[in-house]
TrEMBL record:
This is Ornithine cyclodeaminase family protein. It comes from Amycolatopsis carbonis. InterPro entries: NAD(P)-bd_dom_sf, ODC_Mu_crystall, ODC_N. Coiled coil: none annotated. GO terms for cellular component: cytoplasm. PANTHER family: KETIMINE REDUCTASE MU-CRYSTALLIN.
Length: 298
């Protein structure tokens, strides 16, 4: 019988599982392309993946009008399968899984890209991903000084209060060690020229090629790390638009797997991790959570 795993996956375990999977040779570029089907109220997403002795698929919906209805913008479920027989094994809350795996991948990237003692963080956004990223980054860095930038003054104040942060503006990136963009914005959130050399920027807000959270000024200066080069060139608007503008060459993009496996990056300039969220991430976290629930380990 299929198990329903209601518990939210562990953030530390998710970070560790993603690191181990990439270090052991998982190839993100082998992921099947995300299927995106436009519907009148938003999008229908289908994300299958295969890894080791497991397979899985996430079915998710994106309804931009839902927040006004007091409903989640993103909803969905994740089905974990046996990799050999394709027998269903477990069902996960797709929203909880997505929230953890997205932030866990970002934390893994930050752990590889940022100096060990960085503590000053600017967060753009006040939603579930902003909260998950704060949780995840505190697992890998001694984050103490947090600035929150949001569109709604009331929500931003409430978020800052809940997380022991202070409300700021986009100009605060000038003194940041870490900048995390967790928004639905289709235009750049800040002036990339303000980001200090040595800072690390994470952008996770979109998987669409026509929108961006960071500008050409930052893309021109930064070492750009992505989950998979082909996926970024297809889905990551921050990358796609910078390439079309001639400020970023596709051949300088660095796969996250290379960084995890020890690739040495340039010491100068900012570092940017652009994530679109990939199916292998869901599968690794779901499979690891399933094994832990059954008392198994790799």
């Amino acid at each position: 019988m299929i198990e329903v795993l209601a518990a939210r996956p562990s953030m530390p375990a998710a970070i560790a599982a993603l690191r181990a999977a990439l270090a052991d040779g998982l190839d993100p570029s082998a992921d099947p392309a995300r299927a995106v089907v436009p519907v009148p109220s938003g999008q229908f997403l289908l994300m299958p993946a295969f890894w080791g002795s497991f397979a899985g698929v996430k079915v998710a919906t994106v309804a931009p009008g839902n927040p006004a209805r007091d409903l989640p913008r993103i909803q969905g479920e994740y089905l974990l399968l046996d990799g050999t027989t394709l027998t269903p094994l477990a069902l996960f809350d797709g929203v909880a899984l997505t929230s953890v795996r997205t932030a866990a991948v970002s934390a893994l990237a930050v752990d590889c890209l940022a100096a060990p003692d960085v503590s000053r963080l600017v967060v753009f956004g006040t939603g579930p991903q902003a909260a998950s990223h704060l949780e995840a980054l505190r697992e890998v860095r001694p984050v103490r000084d947090v600035v929150v930038v949001g569109r709604s003054a009331a929500r931003t104040e409430a978020f800052a209060s809940a997380w022991g942060a202070r409300v700021g503006t986009a100009a605060d990136v000038a003194s940041a060690d870490l900048v995390v963009c967790c928004t639905t914005s289709s235009t750049p959130l800040f002036d990339g020229a303000l980001v200090p050399d040595g800072a690390t920027v994470v952008a996770v807000g979109s998987h669409e090629p026509h929108v961006r959270e960071v500008d050409a000024a930052l893309m021109r200066r930064a070492t750009v790390v992505v989950e998979a080069v082909d996926t970024a060139l297809r889905e990551a608007g921050d990358v796609v638009l910078a390439v079309s503008e001639g400020v970023l060459a596709p051949d300088v993009l660095v796969p996250l797997s290379d960084v995890v496996r020890g690739k040495v990056l340039p010491a100068s300039g900012p570092r940017l991790f652009k994530s679109v969220g990939m199916a292998w991430e869901d599968l690794v976290v779901a499979a690891t959570t399933y094994e832990a629930a059954r008392g198994e380990s790799r």
